[in-house]
Structures are given as C-alpha cells and as structure tokens.
Amino acid sequence: MNFDPIILTIIIVAYLAVIGFLGYLGYKKTKTSSDYLLAGREIHPFIMAISYGATFISTSAIVGFGGIAANMGLSLIWLTVMNIFFGIFIAFAFFGKKVRKMGLNLNAHTFPELLGRRVESRFIQIFAGAVIFIFMPIYTAAVLTGAARILETFLGIDYGICVLVFTILVGGYVIFGGLRGVMYTDALQGTLMFFGMLALLIVTFVKVGGFFNGLESLAGLADQIPEGLKSAGITSWTHAPTWGSPMWFIIFTSLVLGVGIGALSQPQLAVRFMTIKSNKELNKAILIGGIFIIVMTGTSFIVGPLSNVYFAEKYNLISIAYAQGNADSIIPLFINEIMPTWFNYIFLLVIMSAGMSTLSSQFHAIGTAVGRDIFEEGILKGKLKSTTSATLITRVGIVLALIITVIITMNMGVGVIARATAIFFGLMAAAFLAPYVASLYWKRLTRKGSIAGMISGFSTSIFCFLFLHGSEAKVFKIVEFFSDGEKVTLIPGLMSVVDPLVFGLPISIIFTIVVSLLTKVENPAHVKKCFHEM
Amino acid sequence: MFKSLDFSTTLALLLMVSSAILCVVYGAVNWNKGHDPSKEEVQEEVQWDKEEKKIDDELGGTS
User: Fold this and answer.
1) Burial (0-12, 13-18, 19+ Cβ within 10 Å), A48
2) Alpha carbon B37 to chain centroid distance?
3) A243 contacts in B (CB within 8 Å)?
4) By mean pLDDT, which of A173-182, A242-251, A459-468 is the weakest?
C-alpha cells in the first residue's frame, strides 16, 4: 500500500493523541472500584450503545468473518440477523434491564460476581472468573491477530511488531482509565467504524455495478467455487449450503448459532448493562445499537462474498485464490484494492479502532476476572478492605492478560480468527447462558442448580472440543494418539462438524432446571433482595 | 428483485433489515419510557460510594 509516511504519521499520532486524552479523562474520573469496574454506573446511552457495539464487533467480525463470508457466501447474513435480534434487541430489552437492576441490588461489579452473588456462591464467581481468564485470551488473540494482519498488509510492518505495538497501546489506557477509559475510547472508535464500514459498503456496490447486479454476478461465479467447498456443500455463494452438509453444520451451528446466541452471555458485553443509570438509557441504546450492528456485520457479510465478483472481473481469480489461501487476508486486500488512497488512511484507523475497542474490553474483563473474581473473592475471600489495592490487583490482572494474549497471538496459525471467536462464544453460551437466564428470570433457581448447569455445559463443551469436534480434536490429537492415528475424532463424519454448543447448551439447561427442582432454594430472603423492584 | 438468491438467503436479508427496523421502532417508541433511578437506588449507590471512600480514607489510600 502506498501510504505517504508523513501523512500517515500525522494521522496516527493525532488519532492516538485523542485516544490517549479520552483514556486520561477516564483515569481522572476514576476514584472508586465502581468507577474502575463499572464506569460509576452513569454512562450516557450513546456511549453505552456504541461501546457495546464496538466491543461486540471487532476485527474478528470484519476481517475474520468477512473473509469466511467470501468463501461461504451470503448465508453468513443469518449471523447478522442473530447479532441484531439476540445480540441487541433481546440482550438490551430483556436481559439488560434485569442485569442493571439485579447488579445494583447485589452491588455486583463483574459478570461472574453477578452470577455468584445471585445464589450466594463464591465458587461460582471464582469458577466463572477462571473460565474467562483461561479461555478469553483465545478470543483476544483472534482479535489481536486480525488487527495486526491489517497493519502488516497496509503498512508492511512485521507482524510481531504490530502485535506488540497494539498490545502496549491498548493496555495503556485500559490499565489507567478503567472501564470509563475503555468506554470513552470505544465511543470514538465505534463512530469511526460506523462511517468507515458504511463507506466500504457503498464503494463495494459501486465497484460491482450495484447491489442487485453484484448478486447476479456472484450467482454466476458458482462454477468457480473450489472443489473442496463444493464437496462440503457450498454450491453457490448466493444460496444456503446443501442441507445437512458439513458446511451447513459449520455455518449454522458454529457461526450462526454459536456466535449469535453466544453474544448473550459474553462477560465483557453483559457488564455494560450495569454501567447505566436507568432503563430509559437502555431503550435509547437499542435504537443506536440496531443501526450500528446492521452497518457493521451486514456490510462485512455482504462485502465478503461480493469481493469474489471484483477479483474475478479484474484478475480472473476468486478472493481466496487472490489471497493465496489465507481467508484472513481477503478483506484487507480487497480494501487495499478498491478504496481511494486517501480513504485508506481513514480505513486504517477504522480497523485499528475495531481491534482496539474489543481488545480493551477483553483485557478489562480478563483483568477483573483475575483481580476481582479470582484473587479478591477467591484467594482473599472478600477480605480486601482497600479499593486502592483492589484496583491495583485488577491492573496486575490486566498486565497478565496482555502477556498471555501476546504469547498466544505470536503462535496463532493463519485463517483461524473466525474459528477462535466461535470457540469462545460457544463455550461462554454452553457454560453460562442457562444459569445466567435462570438467575435473571427464575426465582426457583438454587445454588446447586446454577453450579450444575455451569459445570455440565462447560465440561460437555470441553469434551466435545477434545474428542468430537474435528477442528479442535485434530489440534489436541488425543483420539489420534489412542487410535494409533486411525481416527481424529471419536465419531467421524458429520458429528465432527457439529458445534459443541449444540450438545453443551441443552445439557446445561437440563441440569440447571432439574437440579434446581430437586433442591431447595437456600435463602428465600436473599432471592427477594435479588428481585427487589424487578 | 432477489431472483439470484434462494429462499433461505432472501429470508436472511429480509430478517436482517426487519430486525434493525424493530430496534429503531422500539427505541423510538420507548425513547423516554422506563423510570429514572428511584430514590432508593440513588441512595444505595451513594451509600456504596461513601463506604468505599471511608475505607480508603481510613487506610490512607487513594486510587
């Protein structure tokens, strides 16, 4: 990419100066644990909605899933439907209002703390904190990989250096600014992302001769779909994959269901509901969030497939061939091709923003899981008296998160961004969704029921990842080892492409309900307190 | 209009737009609905803050 080094330096320095200033504002306004963990529970609805959206939509959604959409076709739009309907409407209109009020009733500061305090279980808080601490770095690494790949493609800087620079930048304002710093910077970054993606959509339509012409041209490329994809069920990029084919299961169970439903129980998203003053703000945030998400993932999942039309017309190659087999490079290369040079400067900031806004919330969530949930509540058993020490421990947790993420990112393979995201979203849904929904809506939930639901969903998912689901089982090689290399998964065939969530979530629901019904509510007075004014 | 799409993809596109419209309409209709924080909520929050500050002052710490 032909960037003028002077203009580029000025733009990036100006951008970072504004981000730094917003991080500093967050730092100045942070006085208590509540400020550091929940932005003082007084965030403006616009900031809350854009911050939620910008955290939700990362480079993983734009770069990773956009690249996947180029290979798998327009069926990925089902994920946008799920993102808007479940990720925004259901999450805000139903869950958000309950989380906000119950969080306040219980003075909960983190997602694990809410789940734990709902049934007066320190174990739940520590367990949930540990799951986040251990597994969120996989998702964080996916986002960081996406951001670093963009910088590598656009600027020609070494991938490893891109990873380090990004981590240090984001880490800086998360450590000092807390959730206020995170949300203020998110709002700016989200706004940039919104206009950048809108421009990408419009330019793409212009390049392929309009939306409907583009669709027709895309349908005409069916004969160029690689053999591997065809045999797996993709017969056209404008049609759903063949029902029951491996690709059908991958798209609809892993990507659409796993990521779509998984968004409901994302700790870094759920905690945002606790940052606002009243339900009025949530209603306003729904309007803003709905528009934001359709422009973000809608663009990504339409532009990805249409990139095939552009590359086929210009180079007689489909996108994945042009990207030399790396799906994660398709969107960066496409943007590089179609956008005017001046706009590439802006788009570079858009992609940096998408990465930074999600990373900052992930680092904050991992840090609070270590500091607040595991150390403060687990090791010190809630006996830490000073908020200064509490904030310090969380900051140390964030530094730990940064180090782990960098190590994973440096060792991450190519084309894995979307898969790593789907693993984390699916795992969170299997482990937490059932106890989380029951916590908010079901007074009959017991401590044992909540623990049973959480552990059964989590362990089923882990079992599936190790023994049943092909993409992970072939990495861990346990079945391969015990079958002398004959098998990769215990049950080969279609079962190896069904997402673990399909098994984990129903099992978690059953355990949560059955165990709760078989046991007594431990403390009815506490349940009353939880649901006070709800 | 969507002749190059199959039923599933057409439905996805329509639902995507409908879901976004649902969010816009819901947000607009309920723009000013939903109660402001109750007195009790505000007091509760003020109390949490006071307690935190008091503990910090006693220990001589600041954040």
Assistant:
1) buried
2) 14
3) none
4) A173-182
Average model confidence (pLDDT) across chain A: 88
Chain A interface mutation, best of B19, B42, B49, highest count of A Cβ atoms under 10 Å: B19
HSE-up of A396 (CA within 13 Å, CB side)? 12
Closest to A92 measured CA to CA, from A230, A238, A264, A243: A264
Q: In angstroms, rounded to a whole number, what is the distance separating the alpha carbons of residues A333 and A338?
A: 9
Round to whole Å and give the CA distance between A391 and A371: 8
* Pair A357, A51: CB distance under 8 Å: yes
Contacts of B35 (CB under 8 A, 6+ apart): A278, A279, A280
Chain-chain contact of B12 with A88 (C-beta, under 8 angstroms): no
Dump pLDDT digits (tens) for A296-336.
999 999 999 999 999 999 999 999 999 999 888 899 889 88
**pLDDT digits over A6-21, tens only?**
888 888 888 888 888 8
Q: b/e map of A475-486 (b: 16 or more CB within 10 Å)?
A: eeeebeeeeeee
Best probe of the A interface among B1, B4, B51, by most A CBs < 10 A, is: B4
Q: Mapping DSSP to helix (H, G, I), strand (E, B) and coil, where does residue A133 land?
A: helix
Number of neighbouring beta carbons within 10 Å of residue A5: 8
DSSP state for residue A296 in the 8-state scheme: I
Instruction: Quote the DSSP letter at residue A237.
Output: T
A480 touches chain B (CB under 8 A): no
Cβ distance of B35 and A279 shorter than 8 Å = yes
d(CA A2, CA A264): 41
- Beta carbons of A215 and A80 less than 8 angstroms apart: no
The widest CA-to-CA distance across chain A, in whole angstroms, is 70
* Structure-block tokens of residue A65: 């899933």
Vertex A241: Cα angle to A312 and A469 (nearest 5): 110
Q: How many Cα neighbours within 13 Å face the side chain of A196?
A: 25
- Give ∠ CA A363-A177-B56 in degrees, rounded to 5: 110
Write out residues 8-67 of A within 8 Å (CB-CB) of B. Answer: 30-34, 36, 41
DSSP A489-516: SSS-SGGGGS-THHHHHHHHHHHHHHHH
Residue B27 has its nearest CB partner, among A219, A284, A387, at A284
Distance from CA of B16 to the nearest CA of A (A): 5
